[in-house]
């Protein structure tokens, strides 16, 4: 019997100028009660506009979440259930969107993703990285019903957040290599279409790195489209496999040994240089050159993490998700090997 592979994709993706208000027409008319998950700043940036666009016709409740802790998400899901919301709109950065995805899943509501920053590829994926789950990796929640990316708003996001999205995407160069390796060595399911889609998002932003680094609206549009494409790759694969390999394991390990020091995508950028080197891929130098050029950190000093912590993270990375085989292997790196790797790639 053939195995069944079910794919849920976002129904609509809107990328453009002044598109936030389209949320009202995208939601099916039958949806009468809507919850908006946003943040203090992002409410001012876009949340209020979303509220105003929805309010005339629907009952709207706004929640400003201070963090992406699983406890906050569980509490909000309870309130959303009491209110009887039928759709949850996440307006903000990764924090608001991840919490909104969780609330939508728990309440069986439609989820709409309205990113105000292109900081990672969770904007169109069903995965949420909530804190306090006991694991640093993402959990499966709900595929956004729609993604509305207003490039004017996103282009005004802090530059660091924009370039973090670039870093997250460059990581796919490694993630797909790890996936293919796991397929060859361990017989793991490998979906070439999903892998190629994720890979294309990395190649696309590398090609347009100058435009993206310029901070122009045009560059932001390219970045957002690539983030959506990587998110869709995860939807197709049904896991974050095409988008997360050993470079993500390194970043997750850093979140344990040096929490809150750098952005997700910045850590991925650093991990990508080292993991490409481990794969024996000579493109690591070119990738490092481009990362430098666009202003992403390529060394421990630039990312603000002690060399010792970088080495420690490298030695524990393989323990984070043992079921997902990567170039780090089952036993990971010794301290000596980790040190050598970081030295030879100029990270420390
Ligand atoms: N689902 C996934 O696949 C992934 C999820 N993550 C998660 O995403 C979160 C990080 O996301 P990230 O977007 O970096 O951070 P946040 O959502 O925490 O946003 C960072 C800060 O930037 C502010 N901000 C957002 N957009 C704008 C804007 N346009 N203008 C001015 N300020 C803005 C936010 O305001 P405010 O205070 O209003 O929120 C917040 O203060 C983490 O919780 C991380 O775990 C990380 C990687 C992958
Ligand atoms: O960040 C992600 C994809 O870019 C999600 O990865 P994880 O599933 O490893 O948390
Ligand atoms: Zn990521």
UniProtKB/TrEMBL annotation:
It is found in: Cytoplasm. Keywords: Cytoplasm, Lipid biosynthesis, Lipid metabolism, Metal-binding, NAD, NADP, Oxidoreductase, Phospholipid biosynthesis, Phospholipid metabolism, Zinc. Its main location: cytoplasm. Its cofactor is Zn(2+). This is Glycerol-1-phosphate dehydrogenase [NAD(P)+]. Pfam families: Fe-ADH_2 (PF13685). Binds 1 zinc ion per subunit. The keyword Transmembrane does not apply. Zn(2+) binds at residues 168, 248, 264. HAMAP family: G1P_dehydrogenase_A. GO terms for cellular component: cytoplasm. Its EC number is 1.1.1.261. Pathway: Membrane lipid metabolism; glycerophospholipid metabolism. One of its GO terms (molecular function) is metal ion binding. Glycerol binds at residues 121, 168, 248, 264. It catalyses: sn-glycerol 1-phosphate + NAD(+) = dihydroxyacetone phosphate + NADH + H(+); sn-glycerol 1-phosphate + NADP(+) = dihydroxyacetone phosphate + NADPH + H(+). Catalyzes the NAD(P)H-dependent reduction of dihydroxyacetonephosphate (DHAP or glycerone phosphate) to glycerol 1-phosphate (G1P). The G1P thus generated is used as the glycerophosphate backbone of phospholipids in the cellular membranes of Archaea. Belongs to the glycerol-1-phosphate dehydrogenase family. SUPFAM superfamilies: Dehydroquinate synthase-like. GO terms for biological process: glycerophospholipid metabolic process; phospholipid biosynthetic process. Homodimer. InterPro entries: G1P_dehydrogenase_arc, G1PDH, Glycerol_DH. NAD(+) binds at residues 94-98, 116-119, 125. Substrate binds at residues 121, 168, 252.
């Amino acid at each position: 019997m053939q195995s069944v592979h079910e794919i849920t994709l976002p129904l609509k993706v809107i990328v453009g100028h002044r598109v936030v208000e389209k949320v009202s027409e995208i939601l099916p008319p039958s949806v009468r009660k809507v919850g908006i998950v946003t943040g203090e700043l992002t409410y001012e940036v876009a949340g209020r506009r979303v509220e105003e666009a929805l309010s005339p016709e629907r009952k709207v409740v706004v929640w400003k979440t201070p963090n992406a802790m699983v406890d906050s998400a569980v509490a909000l899901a309870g309130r959303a259930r009491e209110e009887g919301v039928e759709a949850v709109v996440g307006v903000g950065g990764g924090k608001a969107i991840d919490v909104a995805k969780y609330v939508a899943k728990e309440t069986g509501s439609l989820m709409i993703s309205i990113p105000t920053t292109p900081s990672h590829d969770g904007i169109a994926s069903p995965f949420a990285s909530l804190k306090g789950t006991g694991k640093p990796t993402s959990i499966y929640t709900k595929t956004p019903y729609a993604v509305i990316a207003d490039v004017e708003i996103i282009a005004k996001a802090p530059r660091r957040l924009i370039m973090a999205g670039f870093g997250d995407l460059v990581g796919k160069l490694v993630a797909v290599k790890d996936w293919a390796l796991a397929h060859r060595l361990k017989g793991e399911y490998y979906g070439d279409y999903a892998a190629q889609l994720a890979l294309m998002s990395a190649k696309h932003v590398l090609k347009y790195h100058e435009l993206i680094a310029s901070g122009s609206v045009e560059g932001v549009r390219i970045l957002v489209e690539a983030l959506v494409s990587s998110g869709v790759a995860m939807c197709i694969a049904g896991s974050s496999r095409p988008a997360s390999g050993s470079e993500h394991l390194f970043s997750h390990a850093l979140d344990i040994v040096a929490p809150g020091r750098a952005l997700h995508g910045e850590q991925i950028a650093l991990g990508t240089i080292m993991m490409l080197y481990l794969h024996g891929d000579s493109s690591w130098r070119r990738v490092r050159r481009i990362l430098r050029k666009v202003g992403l950190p390529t060394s421990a000093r630039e990312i603000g993490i002690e060399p010792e912590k970088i080495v420690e993270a490298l030695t524990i990375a393989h323990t984070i998700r043992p079921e997902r085989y990567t170039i780090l292997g089952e036993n990971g790196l010794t301290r000596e090997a980790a040190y050598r790797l970081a030295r030879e790639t100029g990270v420390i």
